From TrEMBL:
GO molecular function, one term: DNA-binding transcription factor activity
NCBIfam families, per the entry: HTH_metalloreg (NF033788)
InterPro entries referenced in this protein's UniProt entry, alphabetically: ArsR-like_HTH (IPR011991), HTH_ArsR_DNA-bd_dom (IPR001845), Metal_resp_trans_reg (IPR051011), WH-like_DNA-bd_sf (IPR036388), WH_DNA-bd_sf (IPR036390)
Source organism per UniProt: Tessaracoccus oleiagri
Domain HTH arsR-type: 10-104
Protein name: DNA-binding transcriptional regulator, ArsR family
Keyword set, alphabetical order: DNA-binding, Transcription, Transcription regulation
Amino acid sequence: MPVGTSRLVPEPEHARLASESFRILADPTRVRLLWVLLREECNVGRLAELVDASPTVVSQHLAKLRSARLVDTRREGTYVYYSATDAHVGRLLTEALSYAEHQSGAASGDDPHSYAL
C-alpha cells in the first residue's frame, strides 16, 4: 500500500483484533486501571485505593488485562507491580476519555482536555 493512503475497509483480522481490544476496554474499572498504569507502576493495594474498588475486584480486572497483554508485572519481594505495556492503548484511551469529557459537557469546543499522557 503506498504511503499516505488509507484502507477503505479494514482487513478482517485487523477488525477482529480491534473489536477484541474494545471488548476488553468496555469496562469502566478497567479503563480507570489502565489510565493509572499508563502514568505509573502500581501494586494492587494502591490501585484499589485510586479507583475506589476492593483489591479482589482490582485483581480480577488485572488478570483480564494481563491475559490480553495490556499490562505487565514485576515482582519485588512480596509485592507485584503492574504497568501498562502499550502506547497505542494510551493514545486510544486519551482520545476516548477526551471524547467522553466533551460528551458529558465537562469540556466544549476548543477547551483543553484533562486527559493527556
